[in-house]
Amino acid sequence: MQLEIEALDAAGRGVGRRDGKVVFVEGALAGELVEAQLLRGRPKFDLARVARILRPSSSRREPRCPHFGVCGGCATQHADARTQIAAKQRGLEDNLARIGKLSGKDAPGAMLAPIQGEEWGYRHRARLSVRYVESKGGALVGFRERRSTYVADMRSCAVLPEAVSALIVPLRGLVGALSVRDRVPQIEIAVGEEGTVLVFRHLSDLSAADADALRAFAGAHGVRIWLQPAGPESAHPFHPREPATLSYALPEFGVRLQFAPTEFTQVNPAVNRLLVARALQLLDPRPGERVADLFCGIGNFALPIAARGAQVIGFEGSAPLVERARANAAANGLVAQFEVADLFRPHLEPYGRFDKYLLDPPREGAAALVAALPDAWPRRIVYVSCDPATLARDAEVLVHHKGFALAAAGVVNMFPHTAHVESIALFERG
After folding, report:
1. Over 80: is that where the pLDDT of 412 sits?
2. What is the second-level CATH architecture of the domain 125-246?
3. Catalytic pick from 65, 74, 296, 386?
């Protein structure tokens, strides 16, 4: 079928219409005329992919990665950076208007300039899937194929740092030589300023020969290896034996944060530095103010807030992350309090009144927290979101039921070439 592509959606698909019905077309860009192959028909829309481009967009470019289109890790390498970011911005605005009912006088007072960094080699955290497939010549290591549970037949990855991308082929050889090669489903990668850690998830015990092979790989490639025989709590250093503590710096605030390879940190440290700076600019924490950092993790926002002189309490549901945040505060010589709290059933009254909130929830958002807000405080909220739909849902409560105005909002391009949209929003009470 031949389609005129009208727009690019937040998932990186072209949007066209056939007989009035919306068709989402993988690989198409706004302004293009394409021949599309139908993949799946649904009652309200169809899914298709490009078969031939009859009239290309000026925004189209050649994907850098040879695996693009098969690997499901990236969705929009065929579009230039400006087009990708504009699509994410439109997606945020659409969610705020459609789900949050924030249009007209309730629309954001300002749309912030997008936060963006390097397009390539940015991903310092990744979970690579592993599968031994005899017909493919051995072990596959990489991201899953698009619309599939199969592991893509990859030999490089343009969004991983070059040194990590170069490990994919050697890792395929390593896994293929293990006695438990069909019992290693995942390798987690964590890169810090001190180097790279590989966490091998294994479902069966390693043999002595397997252990020797892993040690040799670590030595040959200058990486540290951890093993994870069960859940995340079972992960432990294997070679070298001493704990592998990684770190990243926030130079603007004179802060360095340490983290274990399996602890949550942002995948894009360069953009994270810009995000923290933007969040602190919007929050404007001052000496004497009391600030709550909710879903604080290892202290990514709380410690810069403390460095600005405010009294900050970080709340987090994970006890190990709270312990890490406390250790980071001590290592940086900062006064900050961290507490374990179930923020999906919040009970923060014993901690008193706060002037400002910093919210950085998971994809589920912070519905319980915003619903429980007192009428008198806080007067300012900076909300960092990894899902524009749940941000919009919570924004509707804040604006229409809690007396806030949405002063500003914008996107954060934490994951270039993907459909993942991070965003930041400022809410203020009059």
Report:
1. yes
2. Beta Barrel (2.40)
3. 386
When computed from its CA atoms, the radius of gyration of the chain, rounded to whole angstroms, is: 23
Q: How confident is the model at residue 10 (pLDDT cuts 50, 70, 90)?
A: confident
Nearby residues of 338 by Cβ (< 8 Å), 6 or more positions away: 296, 299, 302, 313, 314, 315, 316, 322, 325, 326, 329
For the residues 134-139, what does the mean pLDDT come to? 87
What the block records as the tokens of 113 is 């300039």
Per-residue pLDDT tens digits for 187-210: 999 999 999 999 999 999 999 999
Note the Cα 352 to chain centre separation in Å: 32
Are 172 and 184 in contact, with CB atoms under 8 Å apart?
A: no
Q: Is the pLDDT of residue 244 over 90?
A: no
Considering the domain 2-60, what is its CATH architecture? Beta Barrel (2.40)
Helix (H) / strand (E) element for 195: namely strand 195-201
Q: CB of 404 within 8 A of CB of 428?
A: yes
Mean pLDDT of 288-312: 98
CA distance 12 to 75: 6
Report the pLDDT value the prediction gives residue 142, as an integer from 0 to 100: 97
Cβ(75)–Cβ(69) below 8 Å: no
Structure tokens at 391: 């941000």
Give me the pLDDT at residue 174, please.
98
In the predicted model, what is the mean pLDDT of the chain? 96
Rounded CA-CA distance 324/243 in Å is: 14
Q: Is the peptide bond before 378 cis (omega within 30 degrees of 0)?
A: yes
What is the pLDDT at residue 186? 98
- CATH (residue range 89-118+268-429): 3.40.50.150
**DSSP assignment of 387-424:** -HHHHHHHHHHHHHHS-EEEEEEEEE-SSTTSS--EEE
8-state DSSP, 344: T
Residue pLDDT, tens place only, 21-36:
999 999 999 999 999 9
Amino acid letter, residue 181: R
Catalytic site includes residue 296: no
**Residues carrying CATH 2.40.50.140, the chain:** 2-60
Nearest to 411 by CA among 93, 13, 71: 93
With a CB cutoff of 8 Å and minimum separation 6, the contacts of 213 are 174, 177, 178
The bridge status of strand 255-259 relative to strand 246-250 is antiparallel
**Short-list 251, 247, 242, CA closest to 265:** 247
Q: Which pLDDT value is given to residue 430? A: 79
Examine the pLDDT at 136 and tell me if it is beyond 90: no
- Read off the pTM: 0.94
